[in-house]
Amino acid sequence: MDGLRAIDPGLLATVQDAGRYGWQRFGVVVAGAMDLAAYRTANALVGNDADAAAVELTLTGGRWEIAGQPRRVAVTGAEFAIAVDGRPVPAWCSFVLRAGESLTIGRAPDGVRGYLAVSGGIAVPPVLGSRSTHVRSGIGGLDGRALRAGDRLPLGDAGEGPELELPAEARWPRAPRLRVVLGPQDGHFGPDAIAALTGEAFPVTAEADRMGYRLAGPRLRHRGSDNIVSDGIALGSIQVPASGHLILLLADRQPTGGYPKIATVVTPDIGAVAQAAPGANLQFEAIGLDAARALRRDWDAHLASLSARMRPAQSGNPYDSARLLGLNLVGGVVAGE
Amino acid sequence: MAAGPDDPVAAPGHGAPRVRPAGDAALTVELGDTVDPVVNRRVLEFDRRVRASGLPGLLESVPTYRSLFVQYDPGAVAFDALAAALLALVPDGDVPAEGRRWVFPVCYGGEHGEDLGHVAGTHGLTAEQVVAAHLAAEYRVYMIGFAPGFAYMGGLPELLHTPRRASPRLRIPANSVAIGGVQAGITSIPVPSGWHLLGRTPARMFDLARGDDAFLLAAGDIVRFERIDTATFAALEGADGPVARRVG
Q1: What is residue B8's predicted lDDT score, i.e. its pLDDT?
Q2: Which chain B residues are closer than 8 Å to A233 by Cβ?
Q3: Which of A196, A243, B110, B112 lies at 20 to 30 Å from A181 by C-alpha?
Q4: In angstroms, what separates the C-alpha of B106 from chain A's closest C-alpha?
Q5: Which residues constitute the domain of residue B23?
Q6: Which among B27, B147, B219 has the least Cβ separation from residue A137?
Q7: Residues 129 to 188 of A: which have CB under 8 A from any B CB?
Q8: Burial of A323 (0-12, 13-18, 19+ CB in 10 A)
Q9: Average pLDDT of span A66-73
Q10: Residue A249 in contact with partner chain B when CB distance is under 8 A
Q11: Domain-located, residue B92
């Protein structure tokens, strides 16, 4: 049977899709891809449905093989060093991977997370409507857990299609300052806390995972109680517990919680957070609801037009050149290295 | 004109519920800021109306103790319009309770409830008195959260109010009948917790094999407990059929 095999899953690899919405009322965590634009781009590059499941990679991508028919694959997100049987391949670019070839995904110099999409999608059974893995509750993905060396993931049916790339200028930019909408509990903080939130830098600490990032930097003081009766938590919520240090909540956030939330990072800027490694300085800029909605409209339009922005993988793709040379079809042409 | 985040939309005459933004695609409608059965009943009735409303752009609602969290598609509806439409659905005053009624069998103490003795000691009671007090009360599920299917319940008799453990356990078993502070609960999967374990139910609170009925309890449900012994627990734990009884 066709499959994707993890020879080495890297630091942390999980199956993710767009998330498990609709079950938070029962305490089920949404999960899903941390960098949604990169995840959707990976699917578009290999001709998948926008919500097909992919493998989310973390810091190092490991080594992968496929079984069965050749598949288009693509790696997006951070600029991982990628090679097929030792020949370099660019990120944000689809290429055909055949059984017996080894796909090596090295370190990410500029980010944290990558998305390995395979044509046909990762076909683990959906749980409560989604294939996303939430490791803490053991739901979704492959047996509700992170991938291990030797795991084999089933793949859906796929046809052939073009090798494509999304040029750097056509990707959703990483915002230098993360746009936030104040609230829902900004009323628990005085003007000094709001000014610090939008004026100071908050380094990502080592306590940063799919659930959320604890941030260093200035401590924000509560004006009233540092506890509230638990209410719902949005993607991008910035919680302020009694310590005054910020916690930015991400894909694996709990559905409800009891700390005041001073602001919420807007959805289009969550990808930039997902790619921020420990030590990176996060800065926030407060925007109004109208501006947030306009930004979201741009982002939705960007995601809807990904396929139109793609172009055929360039001949400068060293993997293509190497393959053509290897097949002895391009006699006398020297690959431009 | 969008309401500023410091100026949440208020609806006078509805007990002043407030709509607060939670980013570009979610909002919270607060009906109160305390744990209160009247507030929670209104939240659940409000949630029912919201789900039946067919309002454009609604994606998901999450009822909590005292508020309704709403995820929406900002491409389909703007915050102001949605806030106004939601406020029109907030019930006036108290509403009748609508939850299902359940009886859960519980095996108290021993390996199934290792904190029974500690709770008794904390209050100067015997273990039997703790069990009797726990059995005598009726509990209301305020919300499901923290973990899939974990039921936060009110109604714990005051003489059993017990501060949480100073140091939480890294893992307590699924289907534990536990108390923490003023709250009672039943766990659904193994979780870290500072709550005290009084017993366990052989009912599986969360079971994906049940499909759409994966979660036994929902917010608004009323729960009572009945005592079983270890032999009955063992027999029921492996049983195929339903273990918790619907009584209304």
Answers
A1: 39
A2: 22, 69
A3: A243
A4: 22
A5: 9-87
A6: B147
A7: 137-139, 180-187
A8: middle
A9: 96
A10: no
A11: no
Q: For position B150, which CATH number holds?
A: 2.40.100.10
Closest CA to A103 of A127, A81, A134: A81
Mutate to test the interface with B, among A21, A24, A26 (most CBs of B within 10 A): A26
Distance from the Cα of B219 to chain A's closest Cα (Å) equals 9
Contact B143 A184 (CB under 8 A): no
B158 DSSP 8-state letter: G
Please say if the pLDDT value at position B164 is more than 80.
Answer: yes
Domain total of chain B:
2
Residue B112 inside a domain? The answer is yes
Tell me the pLDDT tens digit for each residue of B56-82. Answer: 999 999 999 999 999 999 999 999 999
Which of A21, A134, A229 should be substituted to probe chain B, the one whose Cβ sees the most B Cβ atoms within 10 Å? A229
pLDDT recorded at residue A27: 94
Fold assignment, A178-301: Cyclophilin (2.40.100)
| Cα gap B203→A235, rounded to integer Å | 33
What's the CA gap between A263 and A197, in Å, rounded?
9
Please report the pLDDT score of residue A301 as a whole number: 97
Q: Which residue type occupies A169?
A: E
Query: Which CATH number do you get for residue B40?
Result: 3.30.1360.40
d(CA A289, CA A243): 29
Chain A within 8 Å of B27 (Cβ-Cβ)?
Answer: yes
pLDDT digits (tens, 9 = 90+) for A244-267: 999 999 999 999 888 899 999 999
Chain centroid offset of residue B1 CA: 37
